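User: Can you write out an input/output pair for a complex, sequences first and structure second?

Assistant: Here is one pair. Inputs:
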Amino acid sequence: MYIPVNDMLKHFKQDAPAMANITHKSDQWSPYHDNSGTVLAVGIPGAVIVAGDTRLSNGYNILSRDATKLSQLTDKCVLATAGQYADFIALRKFLQQRLQLYEFQNEVQASTETVAHLLSRELYSRRFFPYYTFNLLAGLDENNHGVVYGYDAIGSYDQMTYGVQGSGQELVVAVLDNQLKGYNKINKTIPQTREEILDIILDCFSCAAERDIHTGDNVEILIITAAGTERIVKPLRKD
Amino acid sequence: MQYLDNYLQSKGGYDYTNVKRNELMKAQGFKEMPFTKTGTTIVGVLFDGGVVMAADTRATAGSIVADKNCEKLHTLAPNIWAAGAGTAADLHHQCAHFNAKLKLQRLNLNRQSRVNEVITKLTSKLFPYRGHIGVALIIGGIDCNGPQLASVSPHGNYVYHPFQSMGSGSLAALGILEAKFQDGLTKQQAIDLAIEAIEAGIFHDMGSGSNVDVVAITKDGVDYKRNIRQYNAKSYQRQVPYDFPINNTPALKKYQFNIEKQELTEVGQEMEIIE
């Protein structure tokens, strides 16, 4: 059905732009780059498991196949970040230095709750030119139970039992909701042991790598317990 | 439909009314639907006595892989194949359209299709659409003028060259082709070179991935190898398989449809969503 353009204008309140004046704003420079990738963290009694893929990308290009998204800030807590890598490095530098100062002044390392609050305040201090970072802070609380704090870009945070951030978030979080919390199940069988949860996490990353082009190469897993930190690296798809 | 042809002719051939409508709609906040693009790396290599074309098998919708093993090598004629990059729907429909058109022509003229016929028909269709039909093709075939290889861009430009690459991974593939191509390759050498070029695209371009498809066209016939190389198997299999027992998923309501009486009745008690 052909509707003359002059009649079409009646349906719109604004004046139509003339064809010669159509400009596209897509060429404007942006200070942000999404280096993508996926991170996740799961807390269980006695330990916390943090995982992140090691691919650094920009658009369709791979910048590095071996870039860590995880950063151990204290003996008990780890920061996992997806988003812009430069902002991750800047944020990590700030936190490392500030936590070192805390340790010198207080003669004890900061607790996970303290680090969580510090991170939130640092992120909000850049409210009007934010860190392009989507963070998960994972660690052991005062009772050595695993806790995970999830953040948005400007510092709003909340405690959770597990969290996912990054380009593979939508693919992975629904699986964890079903497997770790028993969503949409009548009889919930929730895995309790570290091995079962590691099994699920590795499978989640391998599935995210299948369907998300930004996730792949290797997955790096840190397991924090009161005894120390264990590191596991497993390969993922490289295409 | 005669009035439409007359109307369009009187306007001078190019009808821009929809462009204005689209801009109006965008200004009102209408969001364009994302098309499934194929990301893609495709290459073509000319050798002594024929032509080889290869493609990866990943189709993407934004940053999600829509199809892990799609077919990007299309038949246009028994002696002419096309490798396609760009919008998946456009590629499928345009290739099917020209396949049918060429077949009709062959039936009418009783003569083999030629590569330059395909190029002319394609570019004549693509140019008036100003690049909005998103097909970037590598056309290869063998006809009475010998083996030929050309590429067609969405705006209607075409180039004849002994080696071609198109798609988001074209630069990765072109590096390999520029370094290793020579005149007078044998069929096997050309196939190996094409596979190597696609490999570069698969591993270094994230819009391309999964497997490699190859087709080699000589005057003896067409040799199509689907998934000649498969590199990236799923990296992890769960030790304890996922378990979804029957009747473990809560239903809010249950209905029963009686086919004989043609009526829908509600059964059972209403359940709450369990979180």
